[in-house]
Amino acid sequence: MATSVWKGHLTFGLVSIPIRLFAAARSERISLNQLHKVCHSRIRQPQFCPTCNRQIERSEIIKGFEYEKDQYVLFTEEELDKLDPPSARTMEILQFVKVDEVDPLYFDASYYATPEDAGKKAYHLLLAAMEESGHAAIAKLYMHQREYIVVIRPRANGLTLHTMFYADEIRSVSEYGEKDGAQPKEQERKLALQLIESLSAPFEPQKYHDEYRQSLRSMIEAKLKGQEIAVAAHPQLAPVVDLMEALKKSLAGKQAPGKPAPLEMKPMKAVPEAVPARKRAGKRSSG
Fold first, then answer.
1. With 80 as the cut, is the pLDDT of residue 70 above it?
2. Is the dihedral of CA 267, 273, 276, 277 positive or negative?
3. I need a labelling partner for 111 at 20 to 30 A (CA). Which of 9, 31, 43, 153 fits?
């Protein structure tokens, strides 16, 4: 059973709904450990105090804010707990907005909001009203020692919550949005629209995969079998000189994106069997 990351009440007006939040997604990746090149032992990252010149226990750690170089304001966990805002237990809906008014640039992490038994009727009432009106809810939530602004929206017969960045956390880039006087010609615009239309399709997230993760897994399996992978060369791309010609060729040769060519495996020189690092290191040092 999944573990909830937050438990409290979602409120709007005088209606209070007991809910739990569950993480809706997580990154999947293959982790590579750092090893010592000489003996292949795994590198550890101990909690080490340079002043006391020893490793320390987690119980010895406190938190501090550096207000000047090497000068800290210290905090205990008990002191930090006193700062918990009302949103630590209650998520009050501050306003409702149209879903398409929320710029995805502000989205951070996603969570499923599920009702406790006592709140199911109110939960589904709110869900139905939001679906019919096309609104999302804006609220505040304190979690993991941070107060978030969140957007709650109906999705797949339930409420999904997204933590968001605050406006002052959104970075600006001076070059972003500049046109530099580059105005496309009308015929170029029409061809671009045709190319977009030719590549348009319903969004099916299951069609897309992490090709790097798949290739890395294949390489791991190949190395264990004494094989190596011959990877296809990347295409050499150059800046488009004739935009109109490039658009015409794109439309003429358009085709649905296909699966990447399978990685070719070929025999390689013998690879040591997968034995513990210390054992391999011992063999190496004895020679």
1. yes
2. negative
3. 31
**Per-residue pLDDT at 181:** 66
Cβ atoms 17, 122 nearer than 8 A: yes
Residue 217 tokens, joined: 């897994």
CA dist 223 and 268 (Å) reads 9
- Closest C-alpha among 168, 163, 133 to residue 148: 163
CB 95 within 8 A of CB 138: yes
Distance CA 147, CA 122 (A): 25
Q: Is 247 exposed, middle or buried (0-12, 13-18, 19+ CB in 10 A)?
A: buried
3-state secondary structure of 15: strand
Residues 202, 214: Cα–Cα separation, whole Å: 25
Counting every residue written for the chain, the total comes to 287
Determine the Cα–Cα distance for residues 152 and 161; give it in Å rounded to an integer. Answer: 4
Tokens describing residue 180: 């530099």
Choice between 200 and 264, residue whose per-residue pLDDT is larger: 200
Q: Give 53-69 pLDDT, tens digit per residue.
A: 888 888 888 889 898 99
Q: What is the pLDDT of residue 30?
A: 81
What is residue 107's three-state secondary structure?
strand
Global pTM value: 0.69
Q: 148 exposed, middle or buried (CB, 10 Å; 0-12, 13-18, 19+)?
A: buried
* Domains detected in the chain: 6-26+83-167 (2.40.290.10), 214-231+259-287 (no CATH)
pLDDT of residue 266 exceeding 50, the answer is yes
